[in-house]
Amino acid sequence: MKKQATGIALAAAMITTMLTACSGGAQPQQSAGTQSNPGTGSPPPQTAEPSKPAAVSSPAAGGGKVTINFWHSMGGKNGEYIDAMIKSFNESQNKIEVVGTFQGAYAETLTKLQQAIPAKTAPDIAMVERGFIPLLADADVLEDINPYLKKSGMSKDDFVPGLMGNITFNNKLVALPFNRSTAILHVNKTMLDEKGLEIPKTWDDLKKVANALVIKENNEYKRYGYSMVFESWHPVAMIVQQKGRYINQQGTSIGFGMEGINAFKFLKEMQSTGALYYPPAKDSGSITSQMFISGQIGMLYSSTGNIGSFINNAKFNYATAFLPMKDTYGSPTGGANIALLSQSKNKDAAWEFIHWAMTDPKGAQQFIMSSGYLPFTKKMVDSPEMKALWQKEPQRQVAYDQLQYAIDTSDHIQFPAIDQEFLKMQSAIMYDNADIAASIENFKKEAERLMKN
């Protein structure tokens, strides 16, 4: 209990830090591709309202249905898709009633869990942003899912490997992938074709293509080559593409030096020529998405969560591609996982719903196909429905194929606080022209200080 209380107190402190930070990041999804900054990164400022206690999840008198509470962060259209999934499960049997409750952004959901767990009013199941999993795992409030997989005839091998990082701690599988995304390159293929250009595969290609797309008139940029959402995962992807790491394997310091210097030097050079439009931090997702749709930029580094919106709204030949490589391909993953809370009094019933969602075509598979998130089980990937969707919309398969190069950057309990410091460094370099090497050294010192706590 002492470890749990300490972990929950730490969660409270971290969330306070994150809620007062001035950066953009993971948001509750309104629809796949219309949120401010879909995918990953650190949460934006939020004011979390106190959570309503979860209904008691126990059988009704006389052997009625067991109520299972599921807290999630899906609003708007994606919330409707979650509701439809839950309805399908409830109608498929007569023993369990799942109640889904939207709790706000990922950070708000975590804050409400932090309030509910000590009060013993937490839900049975929660959607947890992948960067927050280590924090709750360290607090020992998440159930080990391994035994439930085993008794259901499943194993970790049933899931897509690129989405299974950051969910095993002390040999306990404490979460499973659910609404997961990754960063890819969105391309206005029509614009490139008009210039006789190919979709860039390397940094050198990107430099050539992005600069060729720039239109400057009367000392004013009318069109930029490409842009990216203000999030940590794009520079981190560039670090990974040089075989660097965000955090070293020992968890004692950052895992990059020159890799970071090279990445930010490249970005600043591209910014100086108009090849890169670097957006304001606030609403950067909305700004860059609109610029892409309107033809003000030719390419965009952003989440797979934008694919559906771009397919529906682009008036040009829209394509997707891997993020351009340096020494190798690489892209962090984002989104959230699903976890079973240790204090649930009806874990078997909660697992029955989770298992159904993982295996039934009307479960998470339908949610994935509707929302635009990545399929996370091999069965989903091989399903006739997914194959048909990919044939119709090949942009989605590109996102899945890139998962072979996916990496998880958030396997440290201090990740949320470290990522805030990275964003401060990123902001100073990209907006204030701070010295790159000095900024990285300062970030390293602060990250090491946080890791010692």
Automatic annotation (TrEMBL):
UniProt main location, coarse: other
Subcellular location: Cell envelope
Keyword field: Signal, Transport
Keyword Signal attributed: yes
Domain of life: Bacteria
GO cellular component: a single term: cell envelope
Segments crossing the lipid bilayer: none
Keyword Iron included in the entry's annotation: no
Biased composition (Low complexity): 50-60
Biased composition (Polar residues): 26-40
One Pfam family per UniProt: SBP_bac_8
Stretch list, region Disordered: 24-60
Span of the signal peptide: 1-26
Family classification: Belongs to the bacterial solute-binding protein 1 family.
Name of the protein this chain belongs to: Extracellular solute-binding protein
Source organism: Paenibacillus thalictri
Highest classification ranks of the organism: Bacteria, Bacillati, Bacillota, Bacilli, Bacillales
